[in-house]
């Protein structure tokens, strides 16, 4: 195995770990947003992540982003860490954790379509078929959600789907920057761009929060979502975008549903429907097909 092949394999294994962390995070965040006002929970976890990533970026030796690149990163941060997170957290509060994870699995298809439209990547035919299979799987998942819960969770599902579209534009927008800016710098500056407007929105709820009522388990959920899901996993994500491209990196997000559905079943009692099972198989099949 060549050094390049070993590096690619190492990147892919780290992306599998990222997918596991994010898969578990759906149930963690579902619990956290039920125990605390969603905007407050999101502000806390993103604030923690922002402080850690800024410290890493400051301590990191090497080239820092130029003033022009910092402006671009801050702008992308508004898109990927403010708008995306508002849609995602609001949607998660209105639907099942497992269903949300399965809808998020549409992100590779959305990223590939946006990347192709923007001229960032060319798609081989097998990737096109993988995208079609993944989209079909997501449609089965949403259909299974409606079958199980009626239209009660449909708004949440649609908000999650809107978040996926935003994430696709965010990810493809990072491509030229990721080639010349270190992952920690990308993560830190984009997160600053998202955290600042988020705290303006969350400030009234933060001031009204009874902090003495926040349990240790809720703080644990905040820590998991802030440190593992937003620092460790995001650094792996940015490294993947830089090393193997946005489409292949995004394809690993499709491993999240399997982890998320199993964890939500065990911890939250969310029993998946038959349609969702078929949808998960289609989504994972699309991942396999696109990577061959």
Automatic annotation (TrEMBL):
UniProt keyword tRNA-binding, yes or no: no
Subcellular location(s) of the protein: Membrane
Single GO cellular component term: membrane
Superkingdom assignment: Bacteria
TM spans (from-to): 12-31, 43-61, 73-91, 97-115, 127-146, 158-179, 186-207, 219-238, 250-268, 274-290
Domain EamA: 12-142, 155-290
Broad class of where this protein is predominantly found: membrane
Recorded topology in the membrane: Multi-pass membrane protein
Keyword Hydrolase: no
Keywords: Membrane, Transmembrane, Transmembrane helix
Membership in a protein family: Belongs to the EamA transporter family.
Protein name: DMT family transporter
Organism the protein comes from: Pseudogemmatithrix spongiicola
Biological classification of the source: Bacteria, Pseudomonadati, Gemmatimonadota, Gemmatimonadia, Gemmatimonadales
């Amino acid at each position: 195995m060549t050094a390049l092949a070993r590096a690619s394999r190492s990147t892919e294994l780290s992306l599998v770990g990222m997918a596991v962390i994010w898969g578990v995070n759906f149930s963690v965040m579902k619990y956290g947003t039920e125990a605390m006002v969603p905007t407050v929970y999101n502000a806390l976890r993103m604030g923690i992540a922002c402080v850690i990533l800024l410290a890493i970026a400051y301590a990191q030796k090497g080239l820092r982003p130029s003033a022009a690149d910092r402006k671009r990163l801050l702008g992308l941060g508004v898109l990927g860490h403010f708008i995306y997170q508002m849609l995602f957290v609001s949607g998660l509060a209105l639907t099942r954790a497992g269903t949300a994870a399965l809808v998020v699995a549409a992100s590779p298809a959305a990223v590939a379509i946006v990347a192709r439209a923007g001229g960032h990547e060319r798609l081989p035919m097998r990737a096109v078929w993988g995208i079609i299979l993944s989209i079909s799987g997501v449609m089965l998942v949403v259909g299974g959600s409606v079958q199980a819960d009626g239209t009660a969770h449909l708004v949440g599902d649609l908000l999650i789907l809107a978040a996926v579209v935003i994430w696709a534009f965010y990810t493809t927008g990072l491509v030229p920057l990721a080639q010349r800016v270190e992952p920690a710098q990308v993560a830190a500056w984009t997160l600053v761009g998202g955290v600042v407007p988020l705290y303006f929105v969350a400030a009234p709820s933060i001031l009204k929060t009874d902090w003495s009522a926040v349990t240790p388990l809720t703080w644990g959920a905040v820590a998991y979502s802030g440190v593992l899901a937003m620092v460790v996993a995001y650094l792996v994500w940015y490294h993947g975008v830089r090393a193997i491209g946005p489409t292949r990196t995004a394809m690993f997000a499709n491993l999240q549903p399997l982890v998320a559905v199993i964890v939500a079943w065990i911890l939250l009692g969310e029993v998946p429907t038959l349609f969702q099972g078929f949808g998960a198989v289609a989504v994972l099949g699309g991942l396999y097909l696109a990577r061959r």
